Amino acid sequence: MSADIEHVKCLIIGSGPAGYTAAIYASRADLKPVMYTGLLAGGQLTQTTDVENYPGYPHGIMGPEMMENFRQQAERLGTDIRFGYVSSVDFSSLPHKVVVDERKTITADTVIISTGASAKWLGLDSEQKYSGFGVSACATCDGFFFKGEEVAIVGAGDTAAEEATYLAKLCKKVTMIVRRNEFRASKAMMHRVLNTPNIEILYNTETKEIMGDGQSVTGVTVINNVTNEETTIPVAGFFVAIGHHPNTEIFKGWIHMDETGYIKTTPGSTTTNIEGVFCCGDAQDHIYRQAVTAAGSGCMAAIDAERYLAAKEHVVTA
User: Fold this and answer.
1) What angle do CA 137, 152, 64 make, to 5 degrees?
2) 236 and 125 in one domain?
3) Where a domain ends, among 220, 240, 260?
4) Higher pLDDT, 199 or 49
5) Contact assessment for residue 107 and residue 134, using Cβ atoms and an 8 Å cutoff
6) Are 174 and 256 in contact (CB under 8 A)?
7) Per-residue pLDDT at 272
8) What does pLDDT average to over the chain?
9) Which of 240, 259, 275 marks a domain boundary?
10) d(Cα 187, Cα 198) in Å, to the nearest integer?
11) pLDDT tens digits, residue range 150-173?
């Protein structure tokens, strides 16, 4: 073990709405939290443009600016925010041991995991070029910007089906790009898609390229993987709904997770199977994945951590 060891009362792993909100509440509870931001300080919202669905911003706000506001508030209240990533953990005994940047060891009475999740992408250069300028991985977040427009969505599971029907309420037409000759979605979700008149489904189809004018998306070129026929569809928005993966790899073997890696928390709380370890935000939420729900669970995690420590101190002093 490195000689560089530091002990903290509350360690927050990851930033974003969940981590920063946990930091705000933990600071006010005098837990003197230390936060390691991870390599993407501020999380997924720093890679988005307009955020119009977070309460308190009547005119909307840019994602990076919003996360900077969160960071400043947490810092003003006393959070020690550090840029760095957690490379390994040891939750075998108390206090918990966490290694940062593969060199510094932190021991912590409580750990709040808020490492988030990352959208899965197709891997096209044009996808990244137009990310935030017509390309999105969240219909609930960005569908509003394409009201009355024609859009495309790629994916075949429940999330894709749900997002397609959501977009169909806002958009003139939704083209659904499905790689195989069938959906992976549940029967109920398939039925909903098939009964929505302004959704067109292209089976056996893959995305070849997202087209744009240098400023925003103008269309998508697709290829039929049976006939090899290429078609360019004019669209203003392109949505990727092929899933997310939680950023939880370093906790495998310690924390209970579902089959896709989302951390399991006790219903109605943020507690995990490890004493003194709490989880909030998208690392444990594969259903809602919104900034406001992440922030709410960050508040819960800090309160859970504070109550856990208070109960332990009461036992020790009793």
Assistant:
1) 30
2) yes
3) 240
4) 199
5) no
6) no
7) 98
8) 93
9) 240
10) 19
11) 999 999 998 899 999 999 999 999
- Hey, is 7 helix, strand or coil? strand
Cα distance between residue 174 and residue 177, in whole Å: 10
List CB contacts of 310: < 8 A, sequence separation 6 or more.
none
Catalytic residues: 138, 141-142
Could you tell me the residue range of the domain that residue 153 belongs to? 121-240
Neighbours of 171 (CB within 10 A): 25
Structure tokens at 200: 């067109």
**Please, which residues bridge with residue 224 across strands?**
205
pTM of the model: 0.81
Q: What is the pLDDT of residue 50?
A: 80
Where do we find the tokens 């370093």? 250
Q: What is the DSSP string of 229-292?
A: -EEEEE-SEEEE-S-EEES-GGGTTTS-B-TTSPBP--TTS-B-SSTTEEE-GGGS-SS---HH
Asked whether the beta carbons of 289 and 281 are under 8 A apart, the reply is: no
3-state secondary structure of 153: strand
CATH code at 184?
Answer: 3.50.50.60
* Count of all residues that appear for the chain in the document: 318
- The pLDDT of 7-22, averaged and rounded, is 97
Tokens of 183: 């959906």
DSSP, residue by residue, 73-103: HHHHTT-EEE---EEEEE-SSSSEEEEETTT
